[in-house]
Specification:
The protein is an alpha+beta fold and 391 residues long. The chain is 51% helix and 15% strand. The protein has helices at 18-35, 39-45, 50-58, 77-90, 92-112, 115-126, 242-278, 290-319, 324-349, 360-370, 377-390; strands at 132-135, 151-155, 158-169, 176-182, 192-198, 204-209, 220-231, 235-236, 280-281, 284-285. The longest helix is centred in the middle third of the chain and has 37 residues, at 242-278. It is globular and about 80 Å long. The termini are close together. The mean pLDDT is 96. The structure holds flavin-adenine dinucleotide. The site of flavin-adenine dinucleotide (FAD) has 21 residues, from α5, β1, β3 and α11.
Length: 391
């Protein structure tokens, strides 16, 4: 008999409650007021607006799912998804930075830090006083992250870190990083361990900042560890658990990249609908041509499907249910439809869509990150296939 593919029976309430709607509305207002006016200027010069991150912290957006006892907003994944979507609808870069801060760095400490570590770091991260980063990827180990070369060697009561992490969101500007380093032999099982490293620790520096196609207002950079000595109290969880922890962190992180994709797709779609009604050719609005309206119909349908997949993964995460498959499905589908929607939006804008005077070229550039970061679409399919085949 074939394994039961879908986790039925499951219940999901499609009605968003008052709190969720208020949080979404607050994020929307913030994005319109404080982000929208600067989007193209930041994109052009690759400016990472740290002040905006601090300001989002004051609203609780930097610690959405962090419990109130650690200074967070104490909300759940549904609210978190809505926040990322609303911010990404206006600017994918800020959405990405928010996602990396909340799900990766803060999420890792929340899930695997001990009480002392949570009390020391979470209040600063959740209120936006500190910006966090999370370093797993290296130049030669992206999808194959378990093969990392960055090492942590124990000497008396200290660990000595050596190596470089690449493609790290806030690699230069973060106040604290969670870094996963190899503590065993290459390719050995359970050979990695996670550590927190505060900025200012001797031997830890930011490196080259990447010049990117999209997500240009989100800082992406190297983090270099050169004989960086840290106390054992900076270790997160057990020695050897770093990679297993990372996979768990990525399960949650993928929900935020799914939400990022949905937000970008919604932004591109809304711009395309508006333009299609305003732009006239052959004495008619272009929306009256079936070739255009069918594109909009596809976009609307696919965005709704992606949104529902993402909310389902968030719902399961809130309930503490297994969601490796669901978060990979949400991430895979939402990323791909973000790219497709943004591509079609450029097409609907015609030549104007190819210029920086209209918003869709930015959605087009930003969307591509979603199919790459936190596991490429190919890797998501490997995860989904594995889950489906084991039943
Ligand atoms: C803007 C940005 C921000 C990022 N932020 C962070 C961050 O904060 N922290 C962090 O740790 N990392 C971060 N990353 C890194 C990101 O997670 C990696 O880029 C991603 O996991 C892919 O790794 P790679 O780039 O080395 O590609 P590769 O692993 O070299 O993949 C290249 C191609 O080969 C395919 N491929 C690889 N293996 C297989 C396989 N087994 N089967 C089929 N196809 C395969 C991939 O799908 C891809 O198409 C960021 C990346 C970007 C671009």
């Amino acid at each position: 008999m074939l394994p039961f593919l879908f986790n039925r029976p499951y219940h999901m309430d499609f009605e968003l409650d008052e709190v969720s709607l208020q949080v979404a509305s607050m994020a929307r207002d913030f994005a319109q007021q404080h982000i929208r006016p600067h989007v193209m200027e930041w994109d052009e010069v690759q400016h990472f607006p740290i002040d905006i991150m601090h300001a989002m912290g004051k609203l609780g957006l930097m610690g959405v799912v962090v419990p109130e006892e650690y200074g967070g907003a104490g909300m759940g994944y549904i609210e978190y998804i809505l926040v990322i979507e609303e911010i990404a609808k206006v600017c994918g870069s800020i959405g990405l930075s928010l996602a990396a801060h909340n799900s990766l760095c803060t999420g890792h400490i929340l899930a695997f830090g001990n009480e002392e570590q949570k009390k020391a770091y979470l209040p600063k991260l959740a209120t936006g006083e500190w910006i966090g980063s999370w370093g797993l990827t290296e130049a030669n180990t992206g999808s194959d992250a378990a093969n990392m070369q960055c090492t942590a060697v124990k000497k008396n009561d200290e660990w000595i870190l050596n190596g470089t992490k690449n493609w790290i969101t806030h690699g230069i500007s973060s106040n604290i990083t969670v870094v996963v380093a190899r503590t065993g032999a290459p390719r050995e099982r359970n050979n990695a361990t996670a550590f927190v490293v505060p900025r200012g620790t001797s031997g830890f520096t930011g490196g080259k900042k990447e010049n990117k196609l999209g997500m240009r207002a989100s800082e992406t950079a190297e983090m270099i560890f050169d004989n960086c000595r840290i106390p054992d109290s900076y270790r997160l969880g057990n020695v050897g658990d770093g990679f297993k922890q990372s996979l768990k962190v990525l399960d949650g992180g993928r929900i935020s990249i799914a939400a990022l994709g949905v937000g970008i797709a919604k932004g591109a779609y809304e711009a395309a609908v508006k333009y299609s009604k305003e732009r006239h050719q052959f004495d008619k609005p272009i929306s009256s041509f079936q070739a255009i309206s069918f594109k909009l119909a596809d976009m609307a349908t696919e965005i709704m499907a992606a949104d529902l997949l993402t909310l389902q993964a968030g719902y399961r995460k809130n309930k503490g249910l297994p969601m490796t498959k669901e978060s990979a499905m949400a991430k895979y589908y939402s990323s791909e439809i973000a790219v497709k929607t943004a591509t079609d939006a450029v097409q609907i804008f015609g030549g104007y869509g190819y210029t920086k005077d209209f918003p869709v070229e930015k959605y087009y550039r930003d969307s591509k990150l979603c199919t790459i970061g936190e596991g490429t679409s190919e890797i998501q399919k490997i995860v989904i296939a594995r889950e489906v085949l084991i039943g």
